[in-house]
Structure formats: structure tokens, C-alpha cells
Amino acid sequence: MAARDDNMAHASSPSVPICTEQSSNSTAPHRVILQRPSSAGSRPASVSSSLSSSSTRGPRPNQEICVGEELRIAVDIALEKFRLNPEQKELEFPSSFTATERAYVHRLTDDMGLKSKSRGKGSNRFLTVFKKEDKKAANSSARFQLTHNSRQQIHNLIQRFPLTSKERHELLPRTERITSTEGDLDFVLPHISLN
């Protein structure tokens, strides 16, 4: 049955090598690990690193991280929910994660603009993810450099097609927009009804 599962896994996507790793329990299902075609050897990085003398270390900064697809999906969903929930300030991952799995979470959180920290030693090592509290970036405007040619083109467009007053109003920050009808009534004579 295990050989049949391996053949089916290889047949389903021939361009991506798939290797399976079976736990010591014969009734446990195979763990499928996807690899990129360019990786060397028939074993994924997580399996081959467990055979080396430094099995407790995760992958190096530029090294490819090979984790199970189930873990990838679960971590992606958990981090996306965490990022979208403004009330949740930190997210803790279990101590059962391997060094490679923690490295995957560290790299993913960095790409998502979050902070992560591993604490503890040995089997009690766990990972916590935090939202970055960057007050300076929240209050500042985004800035980017334009070339002289780009600035000249923008200037020409604004000269040829000037902004209308409605467009100017829409470009104001929300706090500065006046949408109510209250305020100064210019060019209107004060009038009091005598009813």
C-alpha cells in the first residue's frame, strides 16, 4: 500500500519531486514533503539535516526550508488571522515545532512584516509572533524618489489637466475633509425667520 501511495504521489505532479517520510509507527500516514526540482539529493533538507551531527540547528539564512504542506497551510492561515485581528497582540506556536519548522515561521513572519522570537531550550523551545509597533511609520507619509524625467512628466500632466475642486477635496486627508453642511456661510446675508 505504501509503494502504491508513493507512485500515486509521483504521478500526480511529475514536475515536482515528492519524497515521503514514514514515522516509526507503521500505521501512521506518510508525511509528504515537497521539494524544488533544483535541490540536490533524493532527501529533503529536513531529513538529511537530521542525519548530520548538528541535527538541532535549523537551516541557514539563505538555505531553502523544506516543511510539510499541511504545516505550510496551517501556519499561513494562523498568521493571516493574527495579522487581521487588531485586538490580538501576540501569537504563540507550540514547543513541538522542529528547528526547521520554526525557521519557516521566522522567515514567513519577516516577509509579512511581523516580529518573531524563539524562547526556551531543547524540547521546551517555543515561538512567539508579535505585531510590529512602529508608531513613526504610522504617522509618516510614504516617500519615494522620482527621477527628473518622471517629475517633468507629472508636472506636464498637471498643467494640461488641472485638478477640479472636487478632486482636490478627495485628496485631502479624511480628518481635514468637511463633509457636513455646517460651517461658515460665505456670501449669504443672515436671515432670521419670524415664525
UniProtKB/TrEMBL annotation:
InterPro entries per the UniProt record, alphabetical: R3H_dom (IPR001374), R3H_dom_sf (IPR036867)
Domain of life from the UniProt record: Eukaryota
Residues in R3H domain copies: 69-133
Keywords associated with the record: ATP-binding, Helicase, Hydrolase, Nucleotide-binding, Nucleus, RNA-binding
UniProt-annotated stretches for the region Disordered: 1-64
Pfam families: R3H (PF01424)
One GO CC annotation: nucleus
Listed Polar residues bias regions: 10-28
A GO molecular-function annotation: helicase activity
Residue ranges, compositional bias (Low complexity): 36-61
Entry keyword annotation includes rRNA-binding: no
Annotated localization: Nucleus
Signal peptide (from-to): none
Name under which the protein is recorded: Probable ATP-dependent RNA helicase YTHDC2
Organism: Lingula anatina
